[in-house]
Amino acid sequence: MKGGGLRAYAIAYLIFLYAPILLLPIFAFNSGTIIAFPLKGFTTEWFGQMVANATLRRAFTNSLIIAVSSSIMATCLGIFAARASTRFNFPGKPGIMGLIMLPLVLPEIIVAMSLLVVLLAIGVQLSIFTVILGHTLICLPYAIAILSTAFNSLDKSLEEAAYDLGETKWSAFRLVILPLVMPGIVSALLMSFTISLDEFIIAFFLAGNEPTLPTYIFSQLRFPKAIPVIMSLGTVLVVMSIVLLTIAEYFRRRGVARTGQKDHGGFL
Fold first, then answer.
1. Residues 6 or more apart in contact with residue 8 via CB below 8 angstroms
2. SS3 200
3. What range does the domain containing 122 cover?
4. What are 30's strand-pairing partners?
5. Is the dihedral of CA 31, 244, 134, 138 positive or negative?
């Protein structure tokens, strides 16, 4: 009885969670402009309008630039922070790492407002660059969490063996450590890319006049005729997110297999 109740709860939870996402492609290929059943017919017209929309293309280009830049910056900074936190002891380590991980628990609107006030106070003009800074701040804790697991799983004897063979600290890090944690680096990169691509609040506050995909979608929800195009765009974004998370999970599991650690679960 308990097992049946738990199974029913799990099924109901999954339906509640994923049914809205499953409706996206259904209405994206529906020829009707009203989001309602019954469906009128099959069409790919909305995808054509999506591709032909110059403002949407600009928003998509901006989002790609922001996501690529912030994911690279967050991953690079995450490598240094994860390496320092897992390998060395230094004064104030818990407090410093706590401050770095603080964006995980802070409401994004508070982070966005704080960044907006600081940037305007020092005279920085709002642009794609300011969004990149904000997204790097948000993505960094996630990158550190992934990379810390990768660095913690390393066998320290491999690093010590490299030193015994005459390698310097830099060459040992470049030739031995980085290849071993590369699956974690790729996972952190892809996870940060996905988070940045989908992020709305910081982009809304810091983008200025430059549109991003989330802010563009928000602006178009006021126009009923634009909803089918938004459904098409949402379908593309969902597919992209699933592909990126699948790749990240593949590299995570590959890293677990390479280091011989027990797999305690991951993104998927």
1. none
2. coil
3. 58-154+180-259
4. 42
5. positive
- d(CA 26, CA 10) in angstroms, rounded, equals 24
* pLDDT 10s digits, 224-241: 777 888 888 888 888 877
- 10 Å Cβ neighbour count for 209? 6
Into how many domains does the chain fold? 1
Quote the pLDDT of residue 26.
81
Considering only CA atoms, which of 146, 142, 149, 140 is closest in space to residue 86? 149
- Percent pLDDT > 70 in the chain is 90
What is the rounded distance in angstroms from the CA atom of residue 200 to the CA atom of residue 69? Answer: 17
Q: Is residue 33 part of a domain?
A: no
Q: Is 42 helix (H, G, I), strand (E, B) or coil?
A: strand
CATH number at residue 196: 1.10.3720.10
Rounded CA-CA distance 266/121 in Å is: 41
Prior bond to 224 cis, omega within 30?
no
Assigned token pair, 254: 């590959």
